[in-house]
Amino acid sequence: MNGVLLPGDFVRESLELHLFFGRIMKEHSIFLEAGFVAKDATFAQQADMFKSQFGEVLHKAVILANGVVSEETLISGESITDKTLRAEQITEELSGISIESVITTEELRLTPNAGVNLSQLEAQVTALNQKAISLTNALVLFKTNILEGMLQCKLFTFNFPLLIIHIRREALFYIHQLERLQRRLVVDFVQEAIEEEKFWNRQMAEHAQFISHLLDPTESDLIAKANNFVGQFDRLEHIAQGGGQGTITLGQLTGETITTTRAFRDFKAAGTEGLLTCKIKSIIIPLLADHVLREANHYLRILNRSKQDLRL
């Protein structure tokens, strides 16, 4: 870290983070709620409460973000895609869980960089960040309790234990990013590139594992492709963690990761469309497919920024 964030950068970076991670946390709550059985209605109600509270965080971020966030972020597909609204509507129909798609509709109308005086929003964004930190800490505790119940065979859910670990890790990463912003710390882009690649290569590998295990056994071609991505991202994560550093530079690693992530993003996009049009057999809820697609888009934006910063 080096230097202090200017008010405008603090506001823009915070709101861009909420547009991505606020929606991710809201959807984690939906996936948790959908996974509980009837006897655990109390757990489902808690998940629904988190869904509503993160919906409020996301909605506030959307309101504040108009004319503030970068065009690069809006066109990246990391917050919403051309499939998000359909995925929400179909998931609501299939699960019976209410999803406030009006937030997505409003977000589709966001415009970038409209000359807003960002310093005037600093106090509101600081308060929103603190609210999100407190709420996400509570969600981490909820996820931890679910995981412990599962591992002790005292709680059943249709979500894998690894998925709970995975989404808990993302919540902790969101908190870490918010706390850095609250301290107004400027990122060291080289160190950030290393940390982001360590984190997201692991997440991408686990996405591929989830896809492989949630597809119907008859979808053998898709399962094989998913398993191939597991191997590719496991290798990239190993290198990012320090394995094989003598044979590849950070720049080369980032370049290879961009190629692999782009291919995985395209695989996810095709899969999401296949699920939305009922052409793929699986137990993947449609919103989960769009969710992991957006995470790949987010990672690609980070990687491309790293590529520019490293002057690859």
Verbal overview:
The chain is mainly α and 312 residues long. The chain has 2 domains: 1-184, Ferritin; 188-312, Protein of unknown function DUF2935 (Ferritin). The protein contains 11 helices and no strands.
Write the layout of secondary structure elements.
Layout lengths: L6 H29 L5 H25 L5 H5 L8 H12 L5 H7 L14 H30 L9 H22 L6 H26 L5 H21 L9 H27 L9 H24 L3
User: What's the CATH C level of the largest domain?
Assistant: Mainly Alpha
Strand proportion, as a percent range, falls in under 5%
CATH topology of the largest domain: Ferritin
**Shape, per Cα inertia axes:** globular
The poorly predicted ranges are none
Distance between the termini: 22 Å
- CATH superfamily of the largest domain, by name, is Protein of unknown function DUF2935
Instruction: Please state the structural category.
Output: mainly alpha
Radius of gyration: 19 Å
How many domains in all? 2
Tally the helices: what do you get? 11
Largest pleated sheet: none
| Element string (H = helix, E = strand) | HHHHHHHHHHH
- The overall average pLDDT, rounded, is 94
CATH architecture of the largest domain: Up-down Bundle
Annotation, overall tally of beta strands? 0
Helicity range: over 70%
In short:
With 312 residues, the chain is mainly α.
Pick out its properties.
312 residues; mainly alpha; Ferritin; 2 domains; 0% strand; globular
